[in-house]
Design brief:
The protein folds into 3 domains: 151 residues, ATPase, nucleotide binding domain (Nucleotidyltransferase, domain 5, 2-Layer Sandwich), CATH 3.30.420; 139 residues, Nucleotidyltransferase, domain 5, CATH 3.30.420; 194 residues, Alpha-Beta Complex (DHBP synthase). It has 19 helices and 22 strands. The strands form 5 sheets. Strands 19-15-20-14-13-21-22 form a 7-stranded mixed beta sheet, with helices on both faces. It has a 5-stranded mixed beta sheet with strand order 3-2-1-4-5, sandwiched between helices. Strands 8-7-6-11-12 form a 5-stranded mixed beta sheet, sandwiched between helices. Helix 8 crosses helix 10. It is globular. It starts with a strand and ends in a 9-residue tail after the last strand.
Length: 553
Protein backbone atom coordinates (compact mmCIF):
# COMPACT_ATOMS: atom_id res chain seq x y z
CA UNK A 1 0.00 0.00 0.00
CA UNK A 2 1.45 3.35 -1.08
CA UNK A 3 0.02 6.53 0.45
CA UNK A 4 1.32 10.03 -0.19
CA UNK A 5 0.46 12.66 2.43
CA UNK A 6 0.12 16.33 1.53
CA UNK A 7 -0.11 19.51 3.59
CA UNK A 8 -0.96 22.53 1.46
CA UNK A 9 -3.09 24.85 3.55
CA UNK A 10 -2.25 27.79 5.84
CA UNK A 11 1.56 27.36 5.89
CA UNK A 12 4.45 24.87 5.97
CA UNK A 13 3.55 22.83 2.86
CA UNK A 14 5.03 19.35 3.06
CA UNK A 15 4.81 15.84 1.68
CA UNK A 16 5.29 12.42 3.28
CA UNK A 17 5.22 8.90 1.92
CA UNK A 18 4.08 5.74 3.72
CA UNK A 19 4.74 2.43 1.94
CA UNK A 20 3.39 -0.83 3.36
CA UNK A 21 2.78 0.94 6.65
CA UNK A 22 6.33 2.31 6.99
CA UNK A 23 7.35 5.96 6.81
CA UNK A 24 9.97 6.18 4.06
CA UNK A 25 10.24 9.92 3.34
CA UNK A 26 8.97 13.28 4.55
CA UNK A 27 10.06 16.82 3.77
CA UNK A 28 8.90 20.43 3.82
CA UNK A 29 8.59 22.28 0.53
CA UNK A 30 10.69 25.17 1.89
CA UNK A 31 13.78 22.97 1.77
CA UNK A 32 13.40 22.78 -2.01
CA UNK A 33 11.80 26.13 -2.88
CA UNK A 34 13.92 28.13 -0.36
CA UNK A 35 10.79 30.07 0.68
CA UNK A 36 10.56 29.84 4.47
CA UNK A 37 7.26 28.33 5.65
CA UNK A 38 6.17 28.25 1.99
CA UNK A 39 5.18 31.90 2.21
CA UNK A 40 5.30 34.44 -0.60
CA UNK A 41 4.57 38.18 -0.41
CA UNK A 42 0.84 37.79 -1.13
CA UNK A 43 -1.14 36.12 1.65
CA UNK A 44 -3.04 33.65 -0.52
CA UNK A 45 0.14 32.28 -2.06
CA UNK A 46 1.00 30.81 1.34
CA UNK A 47 -1.22 27.96 0.11
CA UNK A 48 1.67 26.52 -1.82
CA UNK A 49 1.44 23.01 -3.19
CA UNK A 50 4.47 20.92 -2.16
CA UNK A 51 5.20 19.87 -5.73
CA UNK A 52 8.95 19.50 -5.27
CA UNK A 53 8.72 17.71 -1.92
CA UNK A 54 6.06 15.30 -3.23
CA UNK A 55 8.02 14.51 -6.39
CA UNK A 56 11.14 13.87 -4.29
CA UNK A 57 9.27 11.52 -1.91
CA UNK A 58 8.13 9.44 -4.87
CA UNK A 59 11.61 9.37 -6.43
CA UNK A 60 13.10 8.36 -3.10
CA UNK A 61 10.90 5.25 -3.09
CA UNK A 62 11.02 4.62 -6.85
CA UNK A 63 7.26 5.08 -7.17
CA UNK A 64 5.37 6.69 -10.03
CA UNK A 65 2.27 8.83 -9.29
CA UNK A 66 -0.02 6.33 -11.01
CA UNK A 67 1.19 3.61 -8.62
CA UNK A 68 -0.12 5.41 -5.54
CA UNK A 69 -3.08 3.81 -3.80
CA UNK A 70 -4.15 7.09 -2.22
CA UNK A 71 -3.15 10.68 -1.62
CA UNK A 72 -4.11 12.03 1.82
CA UNK A 73 -4.73 15.77 1.96
CA UNK A 74 -4.62 17.13 5.51
CA UNK A 75 -7.65 19.42 5.35
CA UNK A 76 -11.31 18.75 4.65
CA UNK A 77 -13.05 21.77 3.08
CA UNK A 78 -16.46 20.17 3.67
CA UNK A 79 -16.00 20.75 7.41
CA UNK A 80 -15.39 24.49 7.10
CA UNK A 81 -18.00 26.90 8.33
CA UNK A 82 -18.53 30.40 7.06
CA UNK A 83 -16.41 33.26 8.46
CA UNK A 84 -19.42 34.29 10.53
CA UNK A 85 -19.80 30.77 11.95
CA UNK A 86 -16.12 30.55 12.89
CA UNK A 87 -16.26 33.95 14.54
CA UNK A 88 -13.01 34.93 12.85
CA UNK A 89 -14.55 36.90 9.99
CA UNK A 90 -11.69 35.85 7.74
CA UNK A 91 -12.55 36.60 4.13
CA UNK A 92 -9.64 34.39 3.13
CA UNK A 93 -11.67 31.36 4.26
CA UNK A 94 -13.80 31.55 1.12
CA UNK A 95 -10.72 31.31 -1.09
CA UNK A 96 -9.09 28.76 1.19
CA UNK A 97 -12.08 26.45 0.93
CA UNK A 98 -12.13 26.75 -2.85
CA UNK A 99 -8.41 26.08 -3.05
CA UNK A 100 -8.75 22.93 -0.94
CA UNK A 101 -11.72 21.69 -2.99
CA UNK A 102 -9.59 21.99 -6.12
CA UNK A 103 -6.59 20.22 -4.56
CA UNK A 104 -7.22 16.89 -6.35
CA UNK A 105 -6.96 18.60 -9.74
CA UNK A 106 -3.95 20.67 -8.65
CA UNK A 107 -2.18 17.52 -7.46
CA UNK A 108 -2.99 15.62 -10.65
CA UNK A 109 -1.44 18.47 -12.62
CA UNK A 110 1.65 18.58 -10.41
CA UNK A 111 2.10 14.78 -10.43
CA UNK A 112 1.29 13.63 -13.98
CA UNK A 113 -0.32 10.22 -13.97
CA UNK A 114 -2.08 10.65 -10.64
CA UNK A 115 -5.79 9.89 -10.67
CA UNK A 116 -7.47 12.81 -8.82
CA UNK A 117 -10.11 10.38 -7.56
CA UNK A 118 -7.41 8.88 -5.30
CA UNK A 119 -7.18 12.08 -3.25
CA UNK A 120 -8.83 11.75 0.17
CA UNK A 121 -9.51 14.66 2.49
CA UNK A 122 -8.48 14.16 6.14
CA UNK A 123 -9.70 16.46 8.90
CA UNK A 124 -6.82 18.76 9.81
CA UNK A 125 -6.73 17.90 13.51
CA UNK A 126 -7.17 14.20 12.83
CA UNK A 127 -4.05 14.43 10.64
CA UNK A 128 -2.23 16.18 13.49
CA UNK A 129 -3.44 13.51 15.92
CA UNK A 130 -2.24 10.67 13.69
CA UNK A 131 1.17 12.32 13.34
CA UNK A 132 1.50 11.90 17.11
CA UNK A 133 -0.58 8.91 18.16
CA UNK A 134 0.31 6.66 15.23
CA UNK A 135 3.90 7.82 14.77
CA UNK A 136 4.97 7.56 18.43
CA UNK A 137 7.43 4.78 19.29
CA UNK A 138 6.34 1.51 20.86
CA UNK A 139 5.82 -2.06 19.79
CA UNK A 140 2.58 -3.78 18.90
CA UNK A 141 0.14 -3.63 21.80
CA UNK A 142 2.15 -0.87 23.50
CA UNK A 143 1.08 2.07 21.37
CA UNK A 144 -2.30 2.93 22.85
CA UNK A 145 -2.06 6.53 23.96
CA UNK A 146 -3.95 9.69 24.72
CA UNK A 147 -3.51 12.53 22.25
CA UNK A 148 -3.80 16.31 22.41
CA UNK A 149 -3.73 18.57 19.35
CA UNK A 150 -3.51 22.34 19.76
CA UNK A 151 -2.74 24.87 17.07
CA UNK A 152 -4.07 28.07 15.55
CA UNK A 153 -6.95 26.57 13.65
CA UNK A 154 -8.22 23.75 11.51
CA UNK A 155 -11.41 23.74 9.47
CA UNK A 156 -13.66 24.84 12.35
CA UNK A 157 -11.71 23.91 15.49
CA UNK A 158 -8.42 24.71 17.21
CA UNK A 159 -8.08 21.64 19.43
CA UNK A 160 -8.69 17.90 19.60
CA UNK A 161 -8.50 15.62 22.61
CA UNK A 162 -8.74 11.87 22.18
CA UNK A 163 -7.05 8.53 22.39
CA UNK A 164 -5.74 5.79 20.14
CA UNK A 165 -6.74 2.22 20.87
CA UNK A 166 -5.48 -0.47 18.51
CA UNK A 167 -4.62 2.24 16.00
CA UNK A 168 -8.11 3.75 15.97
CA UNK A 169 -8.78 7.31 17.07
CA UNK A 170 -11.59 8.08 19.52
CA UNK A 171 -12.26 11.82 19.66
CA UNK A 172 -13.25 12.93 23.16
CA UNK A 173 -13.38 16.72 22.84
CA UNK A 174 -12.68 19.55 20.45
CA UNK A 175 -12.69 23.30 20.86
CA UNK A 176 -14.67 25.25 18.26
CA UNK A 177 -13.36 28.51 16.84
CA UNK A 178 -12.91 31.38 17.50
CA UNK A 179 -11.42 30.18 20.79
CA UNK A 180 -7.82 29.21 20.04
CA UNK A 181 -4.70 29.05 22.18
CA UNK A 182 -2.61 29.08 19.02
CA UNK A 183 -4.25 32.20 17.59
CA UNK A 184 -4.02 33.87 21.00
CA UNK A 185 -0.26 33.27 21.01
CA UNK A 186 -0.02 34.41 17.37
CA UNK A 187 -1.73 37.69 18.32
CA UNK A 188 0.85 38.21 21.05
CA UNK A 189 3.65 37.41 18.61
CA UNK A 190 2.35 40.07 16.25
CA UNK A 191 1.89 42.58 19.10
CA UNK A 192 5.55 42.13 20.09
CA UNK A 193 6.75 42.99 16.58
CA UNK A 194 7.41 39.47 15.33
CA UNK A 195 5.97 37.53 12.41
CA UNK A 196 2.79 35.69 13.36
CA UNK A 197 2.55 31.97 12.64
CA UNK A 198 6.35 31.92 12.35
CA UNK A 199 8.12 33.62 15.26
CA UNK A 200 6.20 32.30 18.26
CA UNK A 201 9.39 30.68 19.56
CA UNK A 202 10.83 34.20 19.98
CA UNK A 203 8.01 35.04 22.39
CA UNK A 204 8.82 31.91 24.41
CA UNK A 205 12.47 33.02 24.57
CA UNK A 206 11.51 36.58 25.58
CA UNK A 207 9.26 35.24 28.34
CA UNK A 208 12.32 33.97 30.21
CA UNK A 209 13.45 37.57 30.68
CA UNK A 210 10.17 38.68 32.31
CA UNK A 211 8.04 38.17 35.37
CA UNK A 212 4.44 36.89 34.99
CA UNK A 213 2.96 39.90 36.80
CA UNK A 214 -0.11 40.11 34.52
CA UNK A 215 -1.26 36.53 35.11
CA UNK A 216 -4.09 37.58 37.42
CA UNK A 217 -5.54 39.85 34.74
CA UNK A 218 -5.40 37.03 32.18
CA UNK A 219 -6.86 34.20 34.26
CA UNK A 220 -10.47 34.70 33.16
CA UNK A 221 -9.48 35.59 29.62
CA UNK A 222 -7.49 32.38 29.04
CA UNK A 223 -8.96 29.41 30.91
CA UNK A 224 -9.81 25.73 30.63
CA UNK A 225 -13.40 24.53 30.89
CA UNK A 226 -14.74 21.38 32.51
CA UNK A 227 -15.65 19.74 29.19
CA UNK A 228 -12.09 19.28 27.91
CA UNK A 229 -12.05 22.62 26.07
CA UNK A 230 -11.06 26.19 26.88
CA UNK A 231 -11.88 29.83 26.33
CA UNK A 232 -9.65 32.54 24.90
CA UNK A 233 -11.43 35.86 25.12
CA UNK A 234 -10.37 38.89 23.12
CA UNK A 235 -7.31 40.47 24.78
CA UNK A 236 -6.23 44.07 24.32
CA UNK A 237 -2.47 43.63 24.75
CA UNK A 238 -1.93 47.39 24.66
CA UNK A 239 -3.34 47.50 28.20
CA UNK A 240 -0.15 45.75 29.31
CA UNK A 241 2.56 46.96 26.93
CA UNK A 242 2.60 49.16 23.82
CA UNK A 243 2.63 47.53 20.41
CA UNK A 244 6.07 47.01 18.86
CA UNK A 245 7.00 47.33 15.22
CA UNK A 246 9.56 45.09 13.57
CA UNK A 247 12.96 45.81 15.08
CA UNK A 248 11.63 48.04 17.89
CA UNK A 249 13.37 47.70 21.24
CA UNK A 250 11.38 45.79 23.82
CA UNK A 251 11.08 46.72 27.50
CA UNK A 252 10.50 44.88 30.74
CA UNK A 253 6.76 45.39 30.22
CA UNK A 254 6.93 43.41 26.98
CA UNK A 255 8.95 40.64 28.62
CA UNK A 256 6.48 40.55 31.53
CA UNK A 257 3.57 40.31 29.10
CA UNK A 258 5.26 37.43 27.26
CA UNK A 259 5.96 35.69 30.59
CA UNK A 260 2.36 36.15 31.72
CA UNK A 261 0.75 34.78 28.55
CA UNK A 262 3.29 31.93 28.47
CA UNK A 263 2.40 30.98 32.05
CA UNK A 264 -1.34 31.01 31.33
CA UNK A 265 -0.77 28.87 28.25
CA UNK A 266 1.18 26.36 30.32
CA UNK A 267 -1.48 26.25 33.04
CA UNK A 268 -4.31 25.69 30.57
CA UNK A 269 -2.37 22.97 28.76
CA UNK A 270 -1.74 21.16 32.04
CA UNK A 271 -5.48 21.37 32.79
CA UNK A 272 -6.29 19.91 29.36
CA UNK A 273 -3.78 17.10 29.87
CA UNK A 274 -5.28 16.25 33.25
CA UNK A 275 -8.75 16.16 31.71
CA UNK A 276 -7.78 13.77 28.93
CA UNK A 277 -6.01 11.56 31.47
CA UNK A 278 -9.19 11.40 33.56
CA UNK A 279 -11.09 10.27 30.48
CA UNK A 280 -8.58 7.69 29.26
CA UNK A 281 -6.32 6.52 32.09
CA UNK A 282 -3.54 6.10 29.54
CA UNK A 283 0.11 6.20 30.62
CA UNK A 284 1.37 8.00 27.52
CA UNK A 285 0.27 11.34 26.11
CA UNK A 286 1.20 12.27 22.55
CA UNK A 287 1.17 15.88 21.35
CA UNK A 288 0.97 17.62 17.98
CA UNK A 289 -0.06 20.96 16.53
CA UNK A 290 2.05 24.10 16.46
CA UNK A 291 1.46 24.73 20.17
CA UNK A 292 3.25 21.45 20.91
CA UNK A 293 6.50 23.11 19.77
CA UNK A 294 6.36 25.13 23.00
CA UNK A 295 8.99 23.13 24.84
CA UNK A 296 8.54 24.98 28.14
CA UNK A 297 4.85 24.04 28.18
CA UNK A 298 5.66 20.45 27.23
CA UNK A 299 7.95 20.17 30.24
CA UNK A 300 5.22 21.40 32.59
CA UNK A 301 2.75 18.91 31.11
CA UNK A 302 5.20 16.08 31.80
CA UNK A 303 5.94 17.33 35.32
CA UNK A 304 2.42 18.23 36.46
CA UNK A 305 0.03 15.92 34.60
CA UNK A 306 -0.53 12.29 35.65
CA UNK A 307 1.03 10.86 32.46
CA UNK A 308 4.17 8.77 32.81
CA UNK A 309 5.41 9.72 29.34
CA UNK A 310 4.85 12.60 26.95
CA UNK A 311 5.90 12.17 23.31
CA UNK A 312 5.85 15.11 20.92
CA UNK A 313 5.89 14.81 17.14
CA UNK A 314 9.17 16.49 16.03
CA UNK A 315 7.33 18.03 13.06
CA UNK A 316 4.47 19.10 15.32
CA UNK A 317 3.47 22.09 13.17
CA UNK A 318 1.41 21.89 10.01
CA UNK A 319 4.21 20.17 8.08
CA UNK A 320 3.61 17.13 10.26
CA UNK A 321 0.02 16.80 9.04
CA UNK A 322 1.34 15.43 5.74
CA UNK A 323 2.74 12.46 7.66
CA UNK A 324 -0.33 12.15 9.88
CA UNK A 325 -2.72 12.22 6.94
CA UNK A 326 -0.76 9.47 5.18
CA UNK A 327 -0.72 7.29 8.30
CA UNK A 328 -4.44 7.87 8.90
CA UNK A 329 -5.43 6.91 5.37
CA UNK A 330 -3.09 3.90 5.38
CA UNK A 331 -4.96 2.71 8.49
CA UNK A 332 -8.31 3.31 6.81
CA UNK A 333 -7.15 1.13 3.94
CA UNK A 334 -6.35 -1.71 6.35
CA UNK A 335 -2.58 -1.23 6.67
CA UNK A 336 -0.78 -1.96 9.94
CA UNK A 337 1.27 1.22 10.25
CA UNK A 338 4.62 1.48 12.03
CA UNK A 339 6.05 4.27 14.21
CA UNK A 340 8.22 6.83 12.47
CA UNK A 341 11.86 5.67 12.49
CA UNK A 342 13.18 9.10 13.55
CA UNK A 343 13.27 12.63 12.19
CA UNK A 344 15.94 12.08 9.51
CA UNK A 345 13.39 11.57 6.74
CA UNK A 346 14.52 14.16 4.19
CA UNK A 347 17.08 14.27 1.41
CA UNK A 348 20.50 12.65 1.69
CA UNK A 349 23.52 12.66 -0.60
CA UNK A 350 26.17 10.06 -1.39
CA UNK A 351 29.86 10.85 -0.88
CA UNK A 352 30.33 10.86 -4.65
CA UNK A 353 27.47 13.32 -5.15
CA UNK A 354 28.87 15.64 -2.49
CA UNK A 355 32.36 15.49 -3.96
CA UNK A 356 31.05 16.32 -7.42
CA UNK A 357 29.41 19.46 -6.03
CA UNK A 358 32.71 20.47 -4.40
CA UNK A 359 34.63 19.84 -7.63
CA UNK A 360 32.10 21.79 -9.69
CA UNK A 361 32.33 24.68 -7.22
CA UNK A 362 36.12 24.72 -7.72
CA UNK A 363 36.61 24.91 -3.98
CA UNK A 364 39.50 23.51 -1.95
CA UNK A 365 38.49 20.60 0.22
CA UNK A 366 40.04 17.73 2.17
CA UNK A 367 39.04 14.22 3.12
CA UNK A 368 40.45 13.70 6.64
CA UNK A 369 40.93 10.27 8.13
CA UNK A 370 38.01 10.97 10.48
CA UNK A 371 35.71 13.95 9.96
CA UNK A 372 34.55 13.66 13.58
CA UNK A 373 38.09 14.23 14.88
CA UNK A 374 38.69 17.09 12.43
CA UNK A 375 35.52 18.85 13.60
CA UNK A 376 36.27 18.28 17.29
CA UNK A 377 39.68 19.88 16.85
CA UNK A 378 38.20 23.04 15.30
CA UNK A 379 35.45 23.26 17.92
CA UNK A 380 37.96 22.81 20.75
CA UNK A 381 39.93 25.71 19.26
CA UNK A 382 36.71 27.80 19.51
CA UNK A 383 35.93 27.66 15.80
CA UNK A 384 32.41 27.55 14.35
CA UNK A 385 31.51 24.52 12.26
CA UNK A 386 28.77 23.99 9.69
CA UNK A 387 27.74 20.33 9.89
CA UNK A 388 26.01 18.66 6.91
CA UNK A 389 25.57 14.92 7.39
CA UNK A 390 23.06 12.26 6.35
CA UNK A 391 19.41 12.84 5.58
CA UNK A 392 17.88 16.18 6.55
CA UNK A 393 15.49 16.58 9.46
CA UNK A 394 11.69 16.65 9.15
CA UNK A 395 10.48 19.54 11.27
CA UNK A 396 11.95 22.82 12.48
CA UNK A 397 14.74 21.50 14.74
CA UNK A 398 18.35 20.87 13.72
CA UNK A 399 19.06 17.42 15.12
CA UNK A 400 22.63 16.72 14.09
CA UNK A 401 22.16 16.62 10.32
CA UNK A 402 22.03 20.29 9.29
CA UNK A 403 23.62 22.16 12.20
CA UNK A 404 25.88 25.04 13.17
CA UNK A 405 28.11 23.98 16.06
CA UNK A 406 30.38 25.80 18.50
CA UNK A 407 32.17 25.52 21.86
CA UNK A 408 29.68 25.87 24.76
CA UNK A 409 32.26 27.05 27.29
CA UNK A 410 32.51 30.72 26.38
CA UNK A 411 29.79 33.19 27.34
CA UNK A 412 30.63 35.40 24.35
CA UNK A 413 29.73 32.58 21.97
CA UNK A 414 26.00 33.19 22.41
CA UNK A 415 26.31 36.67 20.94
CA UNK A 416 28.73 35.31 18.36
CA UNK A 417 26.34 32.59 17.20
CA UNK A 418 23.38 34.98 17.03
CA UNK A 419 25.54 37.36 14.99
CA UNK A 420 26.45 34.53 12.60
CA UNK A 421 22.77 33.77 12.11
CA UNK A 422 21.70 37.42 12.07
CA UNK A 423 19.07 37.12 14.78
CA UNK A 424 18.00 38.73 18.05
CA UNK A 425 20.48 38.55 20.92
CA UNK A 426 17.90 37.36 23.48
CA UNK A 427 17.53 34.10 21.55
CA UNK A 428 19.13 31.06 23.21
CA UNK A 429 21.13 28.36 21.47
CA UNK A 430 20.80 24.71 22.39
CA UNK A 431 23.18 21.97 23.55
CA UNK A 432 23.75 18.54 22.07
CA UNK A 433 24.95 16.22 24.83
CA UNK A 434 26.15 12.63 24.99
CA UNK A 435 23.22 10.55 26.19
CA UNK A 436 25.23 8.80 28.88
CA UNK A 437 26.46 12.11 30.33
CA UNK A 438 23.15 13.98 30.21
CA UNK A 439 21.81 13.00 33.68
CA UNK A 440 24.77 14.54 35.50
CA UNK A 441 24.32 17.90 33.74
CA UNK A 442 20.58 18.26 33.07
CA UNK A 443 17.50 17.52 35.17
CA UNK A 444 13.69 17.96 35.27
CA UNK A 445 13.04 17.23 31.60
CA UNK A 446 12.97 13.73 30.12
CA UNK A 447 16.14 11.82 29.26
CA UNK A 448 16.54 10.62 26.53
CA UNK A 449 15.36 13.78 24.77
CA UNK A 450 16.24 13.26 21.10
CA UNK A 451 14.12 15.99 19.47
CA UNK A 452 14.76 19.19 21.52
CA UNK A 453 11.11 19.47 22.55
CA UNK A 454 11.50 19.90 26.32
CA UNK A 455 13.54 22.18 28.56
CA UNK A 456 15.89 20.94 31.25
CA UNK A 457 17.44 22.61 34.27
CA UNK A 458 21.20 22.98 34.00
CA UNK A 459 22.95 21.74 37.15
CA UNK A 460 24.35 24.67 39.14
CA UNK A 461 27.91 23.41 38.93
CA UNK A 462 27.67 23.21 35.12
CA UNK A 463 26.21 26.64 34.39
CA UNK A 464 29.58 28.37 34.41
CA UNK A 465 31.14 25.53 32.41
CA UNK A 466 28.61 25.71 29.54
CA UNK A 467 27.36 29.33 29.63
CA UNK A 468 26.70 29.52 25.87
CA UNK A 469 23.82 27.06 26.11
CA UNK A 470 22.49 28.02 29.56
CA UNK A 471 19.51 30.34 29.09
CA UNK A 472 18.91 33.33 31.35
CA UNK A 473 16.53 31.24 33.49
CA UNK A 474 19.09 28.45 34.02
CA UNK A 475 17.51 26.05 31.53
CA UNK A 476 18.49 24.51 28.21
CA UNK A 477 16.58 22.81 25.40
CA UNK A 478 18.74 19.74 25.00
CA UNK A 479 19.20 17.04 22.42
CA UNK A 480 20.62 13.79 23.74
CA UNK A 481 22.86 11.86 21.35
CA UNK A 482 22.48 8.09 21.41
CA UNK A 483 25.52 6.26 19.96
CA UNK A 484 23.24 3.65 18.41
CA UNK A 485 21.13 6.27 16.61
CA UNK A 486 23.75 8.93 15.76
CA UNK A 487 27.17 7.26 15.88
CA UNK A 488 29.02 9.97 13.93
CA UNK A 489 27.72 12.84 16.08
CA UNK A 490 28.39 10.82 19.22
CA UNK A 491 31.96 10.15 18.09
CA UNK A 492 32.49 13.85 17.32
CA UNK A 493 31.24 15.04 20.73
CA UNK A 494 33.31 12.33 22.45
CA UNK A 495 36.38 13.61 20.61
CA UNK A 496 35.49 17.16 21.73
CA UNK A 497 35.13 15.94 25.32
CA UNK A 498 38.60 14.38 25.23
CA UNK A 499 40.01 17.78 24.29
CA UNK A 500 37.92 20.00 26.59
CA UNK A 501 36.31 17.91 29.31
CA UNK A 502 32.87 18.96 28.04
CA UNK A 503 30.49 16.29 26.64
CA UNK A 504 28.37 19.08 25.11
CA UNK A 505 28.51 21.19 21.94
CA UNK A 506 26.40 24.13 20.81
CA UNK A 507 23.83 23.14 18.19
CA UNK A 508 21.64 25.50 16.19
CA UNK A 509 20.10 25.15 12.75
CA UNK A 510 22.28 25.54 9.67
CA UNK A 511 20.74 28.67 8.22
CA UNK A 512 20.73 32.42 8.59
CA UNK A 513 17.81 34.60 9.67
CA UNK A 514 14.78 34.41 7.41
CA UNK A 515 16.14 31.52 5.37
CA UNK A 516 15.04 27.88 5.49
CA UNK A 517 17.40 25.34 6.96
CA UNK A 518 20.14 24.23 4.56
CA UNK A 519 19.08 21.10 2.72
CA UNK A 520 21.40 20.26 -0.18
CA UNK A 521 25.17 20.63 -0.68
CA UNK A 522 24.83 23.80 -2.74
CA UNK A 523 22.80 25.40 0.07
CA UNK A 524 25.60 24.41 2.46
CA UNK A 525 28.28 26.04 0.32
CA UNK A 526 26.18 29.19 -0.03
CA UNK A 527 25.68 29.44 3.75
CA UNK A 528 29.37 28.70 4.42
CA UNK A 529 30.42 31.36 1.94
CA UNK A 530 28.17 34.07 3.37
CA UNK A 531 28.62 33.54 7.12
CA UNK A 532 31.74 33.70 9.34
CA UNK A 533 32.05 29.93 9.73
CA UNK A 534 35.49 28.35 10.11
CA UNK A 535 34.83 24.85 8.80
CA UNK A 536 32.21 23.08 6.71
CA UNK A 537 31.99 19.34 7.44
CA UNK A 538 30.02 17.91 4.55
CA UNK A 539 29.87 14.14 4.35
CA UNK A 540 33.42 12.82 4.80
CA UNK A 541 34.91 16.08 3.49
CA UNK A 542 35.86 19.37 5.13
CA UNK A 543 36.16 22.83 3.63
CA UNK A 544 38.21 25.35 5.60
CA UNK A 545 37.82 29.10 5.67
CA UNK A 546 40.86 30.66 4.00
CA UNK A 547 42.93 32.83 6.30
CA UNK A 548 42.22 36.50 5.70
CA UNK A 549 45.00 38.32 3.86
CA UNK A 550 46.18 41.35 5.87
CA UNK A 551 45.43 44.63 4.17
CA UNK A 552 48.48 46.65 3.12
CA UNK A 553 49.37 49.48 5.47
Amino acid sequence: MKVLGINAIYHDPAAALVVDGEVVAAAEEERFSRRKHGKRPLPWSAWELPELAAAWCLRQAGIRPEELDAVAYSFDPALMGTPEESGLFDDGDVMRKKYAEMAPDFLAHALPGLDPAKVRFVQHHVAHAASAGLAAPGGAGQRDNAVLVLDGRGEAHSHLAGRYVDGQLEVLAGQALPHSLGLMYEDLTDHLGFLRSSDEFKVMAMASYGKPRFVGDLTELIRATDDGGFRTEQIDYTEFAPRLGKGDAWTSDHADLAASVQQRLEEVLVDLARWVHEQTGEKTLTLAGGTALNCVANTRILAESPFDQVWVQPAAGDAGTALGAALHVARELGEETQPMPGAALGRGWSDDEIEQVLVTAAIDYERPDDVAEAVAEVLADNGIVAWFQGRSEYGPRALGHRSLMAHPGFEANLERMNDVKGREQFRPVAPMVLLEKAPEIFSRGPIPSPYMLFVHDVAQEWRDRIPTVTHVDGTARIQTIDPEVSPLVHRMISAFERRTGLPVVVNTSLNTAGRPMVDDPRDALECFGSAPVDLLAIGPFVVRRPKATPRPA
